[in-house]
Design a protein that fits this description.
The complex is a heterodimer.
Chain A: H1 18-22, E1 38-44, E2 50-56, H2 58-62, E3 66-71, E4 82-84, E5 89-91, H3 92-99, E6 104-105, E7 111-117, H4 120-127, E8 131-136, H5 143-147, E9 159-162, E10 165-170, E11 173-181, H6 184-190, E12 193-201, E13 213-218, E14 224-228, H7 233-243, E15 251-255, H8 271-281, E16 285-288, H9 291-297, E17 304-312, E18 318-330, H10 337-343, E19 352-361, H11 375-393, H12 397-403, H13 423-431, H14 434-437, E20 448-458, E21 466-472, E22 478-482, H15 490-502, E23 509-513, H16 530-557, E24 564-567, E25 570-573, E26 576-582, H17 583-590, E27 598-603, E28 612-623, E29 628-639, H18 646-665, E30 696-701, H19 723-735, H20 746-756
Parallel strand pairs in A: 1-16, 9-11, 14-15, 18-19, 22-23, 29-30
Antiparallel strand pairs in A: 1-7, 2-6, 2-8, 3-7, 4-5, 9-10, 11-19, 12-17, 13-14, 13-16, 17-18, 20-28, 21-22, 21-27, 24-25, 25-26, 28-29
Helix pairs in contact in A: 10-11, 11-19, 12-13, 15-16, 16-17, 18-19
Chain B: E1 5-8, H1 15-18, E2 26-29, H2 35-40, E3 48-51, E4 61-64, E5 67-71, H3 76-81, H4 83-88, H5 90-97, H6 102-107, H7 110-115, H8 164-170, E6 174-179, E7 182-187, H9 188-191, E8 210-217, E9 223-230, E10 241-250, E11 253-262, E12 269-270, H10 272-278, H11 285-295, H12 307-324
Parallel strand pairs in B: 1-3, 2-3
Antiparallel strand pairs in B: 4-5, 5-8, 6-7, 6-8, 9-10, 10-11, 11-12
The chains are: A alpha+beta, B alpha+beta.
The structure holds flavin-adenine dinucleotide (FAD) and iron/sulfur cluster.
């Protein structure tokens, strides 16, 4: 038995989908084969900004192997309309134009046409036969340049919204908002130490291994089926229905196994194109992106510019903070600057705060969610400034964080007041960790070593719709259908919550992720919501099954249902010790008393409940000659609420840390002056390999989430938030030089050290 | 990738006739780890691909009194695991051990490694018709040249990507070439060519010639070697700068030094000034430093790659000191 009296929760069973995945049996998008299958590919813009004067598809259409060509003219023109896709609000007209450019191309890699052919090679050849006439326009890729007067304008009809009101000004700034609490000027006046710094971060990609894919079949009845790799099948259904202007009832999405998403597999890219090509040809059409298409044609997370100012008294109390945050939205409005603004100072209790956020269009791919979208950029700035303040005050940076830590009742600058959260508990666990208490040995090889810490916050979406449908087998096992796609072990974590509720083993539940026609609406697997939200539904399903079993027992035993108890996995009749049975025993007879036992439950919790906090400790070794930063030891501490399957919580923490390390030390889109990306391959866009990393140590803190029956908090996103700042602080500790521009790659570190005598 | 025809060669003698007058007609494939990527990126667009792996007897490592002979199709893994290589040619062993990843080394051949094409990101992108692909300009000039050459004066600024080539050159290896008129032998030092000689290629090989063997003379007694490589990532990453060093040191005095830098020039770059400086001198820290200075004397870094000069210098100093001790 695990802690808190749980039998299943807190244990580490083998995941239900594990064997098929490690033996290569699991079905991914690339595995789909259908009779009469055609292969599609996309023609993309070579220019970062240009007007499309004409698209001539005749040469491609004349190619004997080509079956159809589509352009934006094959898409219905749709009005400006916002839709909530779970992790981001999307304007559907923009979404449609992003799928196939209409009028203008806004980034290099922007899709302009799709081709279906008898095989992929013919399709690729045919793409070269599509003649697009462009009027090349000046482009802008940097966020600050894009905000300047006179910058090339992406959307001639887009007026800046400022503080909630649309202005008359046409600019690349889609939106400027402000959160204000208290009087920052007064707060800074009280402070003894005030630090103000500027930071930049570059565009980075989620880097999922499986590239985007979609296979579409538009049959003779007008029924569209899409097999695809997505974080949210229903979200794809909604987008398809809107972009193609068809009823949701005509669209069925079959989600396949997903080889990574991290927020990047929510928006549709290929799916509508494959659908149009299938409609034109009457054949199923399969499309798969190459890696450079993924880099240049999907949604990375934004580059940004931040200016953060914080003040504290000499006795170590934060008095005021301000932030200026400008985030690149990419080609269409909708950067995660709003989310970043909600996170930037949240680990702290600061009385006077002002945050100004700017959502800025630039000629780069439309950005998309990436693990705690917006929060990592924000924490890089805040956590570096906090490190400087602690140093100035001569206090331990973690003690400073504990002293100023957010707790129940602390108000966030953007409004909400924290319920019970584990911010301080997490920081204290880091402070007391063996790692933080150990001393850092000097390097023997002429390199220099240092230690850094940083904290981070992510909201967690404590809500959303989830549906579960179960049927009980006579042997007492349960087939469990769910709508949540499984990108991080959620089949297991959800099945375990059902098993716990009704007193079964995790292996007694057989979880299946099913298509949109087979289960109730379920929101995306994103926002760290799935183990929380669909787990919430699993708990409710367990409760429904217990009620139903009591009804069946009442018939079988001929006693009143309300006199039957369920405790420790056993149903029993209060007045007769003979009348008792476990869930499994009851299952074998229950069918005789009213047919097979089934249950369907859907839930939509209210969204309250606290977010996730993390504090990380890292030791680095810096080679001054090459600028290379090696990570010697890394410990991630995080409040998981309740760890349902601790191995998968640890896995999420480790995965997030690794992505944060890549973002901090190496990853970036490197742009040419002509607005193209030079390094659109995994060779030149350097994500860390196992050899670049030590084992990432984890410490799970459990401060239960009061809005979940088992206390679950989301765990998937916050671990990416602290790493870049923790690394910057460690590099400073080692070299005496502060790095405020990401990534801190060898050429940049070497240059910074040379310039600053570090 | 464009359509192409595919031929399995069955003998060395047959190959020249299967190849053509131009690289657009036909190319040979060994492990394919470089060629297939090039074809996918449209950097190579051959009408015919001639597979060499179907020729028997080209994967061998033979040792005799003169040294080691390695067949062109020997995989990097076989080179890495060969005990004669690891015991007598540590510079080659170490170089091969840091190439790519185990999976790629299992497929890649030694000849393919020294014949692999540049990794310049403009060259590898379909969107940039640069000089090397027959176009009108070099995009690295005025572009992002962080990973380009610090030696040579154009007109192409690629760096030679091979790790094995500097090691083989430091060892004084010879390349065995087979063409329409039969076999020929070329010293590694004379094999690679600078862009001003032929902008489209990196060596003297003609379209209808192939490499059949690489032979390495037995290092002289008292000679030691090592390979150093600096890269941003610990695996699957090309060198920012590498150094293959083989030195004969007797009683603390350098009799001969062979120092070849990788990642800095369009060909494996022999640091002749440093070699000359070291010959006949007792090695001290100051002299190691002078040798390092001499090695980069002619460096002409581009706007984004000045850091390579420092790294090159540090590697030379480090290796000279290590091999003298
Ligand atoms: C991800 C990745 C990382 C890498 N990292 C490194 C690295 O760190 N260091 C490094 O040195 N290399 C690296 N490489 C390159 C790799 O080592 C080469 O691709 C490999 O050695 C080529 O050998 P191959 O047998 O596969 O050659 P192929 O791909 O078959 O051929 C390569 C070229 O040589 C020609 N060729 C091959 N054999 C002959 C022959 N006998 N005669 C004439 N021409 C011939 C082909 O026509 C072709 O142009 C990397 C490659 C990849 C894909
Ligand atoms: S360095 Fe050479 S390969 Fe690269 S762009 Fe210039 S000419 Fe082309």
């Amino acid at each position: 038995m695990s802690q808190n009296g749980h039998k299943v929760i807190g244990t580490r069973p083998i995941r239900h989908d594990g064997v098929d995945k490690v033996t290569g049996r699991a079905i991914y998008g690339a595995d789909i084969q259908l009779t009469g299958l055609l292969h599609g590919t996309v023609k993309r813009s070579p220019h970062p900004h240009a007007r499309i004067k004409n698209i001539d598809t005749s040469r491609a259409e004349a190619h004997p192997g080509v079956r159809a060509v589509v352009t934006a003219h094959d898409l219905p023109q749709i009005a400006d309309k916002l839709a909530d896709l779970g992790e981001a609000i999307v304007n559907l007209r923009d979404a449609s134009n992003n799928v196939l450019a209409y009028g203008k191309v806004l980034y290099k890699g922007h899709a302009v046409a799709g081709v279906a052919a008898i095989n992929l090679h013919v399709a690729q050849e045919a793409v070269e036969l599509i003649d697009v006439e462009y009027e090349v326009l000046p482009h802008v890729t940097g966020v600050l340049e894009a905000m300047e007067d006179g910058a090339p304008i992406l959307h001639e009809d887009m007026k800046t919204t400022s503080m909630g009101e649309e202005t008359d000004k046409v600019s690349n700034i889609a939106n400027h908002f402000q959160h204000k609490m208290g009087e920052p000027d007064d707060g800074f006046a009280e402070a003894d130490v005030v630090i103000e710094r500027e930071f930049t971060t570059q565009t980075v990609h989620q880097g999922y291994i499986e590239t985007h894919n979609a296979t579409a079949l538009w049959n003779e009845e007008g029924q569209l089926t899409i097999w695809t790799s997505t974080q949210g099948a229903f979200s794809v259904r909604d987008q398809m229905a809107e972009i193609l202007q068809m009823p949701v009832s005509k669209v069925k999405i079959v989600p396949l196994e997903i080889g990574g998403g991290f927020g990047g597999k929510i928006s549709v890219y290929l799916d509508p194109v494959a659908a149009l090509l299938s409609k034109k040809t009457g054949h199923p059409v399969k499309m798969t992106m190459t890696r450079d298409e993924v880099f240049e044609g999907t949604g990375p997370t934004p580059g940004s510019y931040l200016k953060v100012k914080m003040g504290a008294t000499s006795d170590g109390r934060l008095t005021a903070a301000t932030a200026y945050m400008a985030y690149e939205a990419g080609a269409y409005p909708g950067s995660p600057v709003g989310a970043g603004a909600g996170c930037i100072f949240t680990p702290y209790d600061i009385p006077n705060v002002q945050i100004d956020g700017y959502d800025v269009c630039v000629n780069k791919p439309k950005t998309n969610a990436y693990r705690a979208p917006g929060a990592t950029n924000a924490a890089y700035a805040t956590e570096t400034v906090v490190d400087e303040i602690s140093e100035k005050l001569g206090v331990d940076p973690l003690e400073f964080r504990v002293k100023n830590g957010a707790k129940e009742g602390t108000r966030r600058a953007d409004g909400p007041v924290h319920p019970r959260i584990g911010c301080i508990e997490t920081t204290e666990a880091a402070l007391n960790s063996e790692h933080y208490r150990s001393s850092l040995a000097k390097s023997a090889n002429g390199k220099v070593r240092g230690r850094g810490v940083a904290s981070g916050y992510w909201f967690n979406f404590n809500g959303g719709r989830s549906a579960i449908s179960v049927s009980i087998n006579p042997d007492g096992t349960i087939n469990m259908l769910e709508g949540s796609t499984d990108i991080g072990g959620s089949r297991a974590s959800i099945a375990m919550q059902l098993a716990e509720t009704i007193g079964l083993e995790a292996t007694d539940i057989k979880p299946y992720v099913v298509d949109t026609d087979s289960i109730g609406y379920t929101d995306v697997t994103g926002g760290s919501r799935t183990t929380f939200g669909t787990g919430y539904a699993a708990h409710a399903t367990g409760q429904a099954l217990i009620r139903e079993m009591k009804e069946r027992a009442s018939k079988l035993w001929d006693v009143p249902a309300d006199a039957i108890d369920f405790e420790d996995g056993v149903f029993s009749y209060r007045d007769d010790a003979e009348k008792r049975g476990s869930f499994k025993e009851m299952a074998s007879q229950a069918g005789d008393a009213g047919g097979p036992v089934v249950a369907q439950v859907s839930t939509n919790p209210d969204g309250s409940g606290g977010g996730a906090f993390a504090t990380h400790v890292v030791d680095v070794e810096v080679d001054r000659e090459t600028g290379k930063v090696d990570i010697l030891r890394y410990t991630a501490v995080q409040d998981a609420g309740t760890a349902i399957h601790p191995s998968y919580v640890e896995g999420q923490m480790q995965g997030g840390v690794v992505q944060g390390i890549g973002w901090g030390l190496n990853e970036e889109y490197i742009y040419n002056d002509d607005g193209s990306m030079t390094n659109a391959s995994f060779l030149d866009y350097r994500m860390p390999t196992t050899l670049d990393l030590p084992m990432i140590e984890t410490i799970i803190v459990e401060v239960p989430n009061e809005s979940h029956p088992y206390g679950v908090r989301g765990v998937g996103e916050v671990p990416i938030v602290p790493p870049p700042a923790a690394l910057a602080n460690a590099i400073y500790d080692a070299t005496g030089v502060r790095l405020r521009d990401l990534p801190m790659s060898p050429p940049r570190v070497q240059k910074a050290l040379a310039e600053n005598g570090g | 990738m464009r359509n192409f025809s595919y031929v399995n060669a069955t003998s060395i003698e047959q190959v020249p006739s299967l190849l053509g007058r131009s690289w657009d007609d036909a190319v040979v494939m060994a492990g394919g780890t470089d060629l297939v990527g090039e074809m996918k990126d449209y950097a190579a667009v051959p009408k015919r691909v001639v597979n060499l792996k179907s020729i028997e007897g080209l994967d061998y490592i033979r040792q005799d009194d003169a040294g080691l002979r390695i067949g062109a199709l020997t995989t990097l893994t076989d080179v890495l695991e060969n005990s004669a290589v690891s015991q007598e040619l540590p510079v080659l062993h170490q170089a091969v051990s840091v190439i790519a990843s185990p999976q790629i080394r299992n497929m890649a051949t030694l000849a393919g490694n020294i014949l692999q094409r540049p990794r310049c990101w403009y060259y590898r992108s379909e969107d940039f018709p640069c000089l090397k692909k027959g176009g009108a300009r070099c995009y690295a000039v005025g572009g992002v040249n962080t990973y380009h050459a610090i030696f040579g004066s154009g007109p192409s600024y690629i760096v030679h990507p091979s790790d094995a080539a500097p090691a083989l050159m430091a060892l004084g290896a010879t390349v065995h070439v087979h063409g329409p008129r039969g076999g020929d032998e070329v010293l590694m030092d004379d094999f690679f060519t600078m862009p001003e000689m032929n902008i489209r290629r990196e060596n003297i090989l003609r379209p209808n010639e192939i490499v059949t063997e690489i032979s390495i003379p037995k290092p002289e007694a008292n000679s030691k070697g090592m390979f150093l490589k600096v890269r941003e990532r610990e695996s699957i990453d090309f060198a920012l700068v590498s150094l293959a060093a083989q030195m004969t040191v007797v009683n603390g005095t350098c009799e001969r030094a062979s120092l070849v830098l990788g990642g800095v020039a369009p060909i494996p770059w022999r640091a002749v000034e440093a070699e000359d400086y070291l010959r006949g001198r007792r090695i001290t820290e100051a002299r190691a430093e002078s040798a390092a200075e001499a090695a980069v004397e002619d460096a002409a870094p581009m706007p984004h790659n000045g850091y390579k000069v420092e790294i090159a210098k540090n590697l030379v100093k480090q290796a000279v000191q290590a091999l003298a001790s």
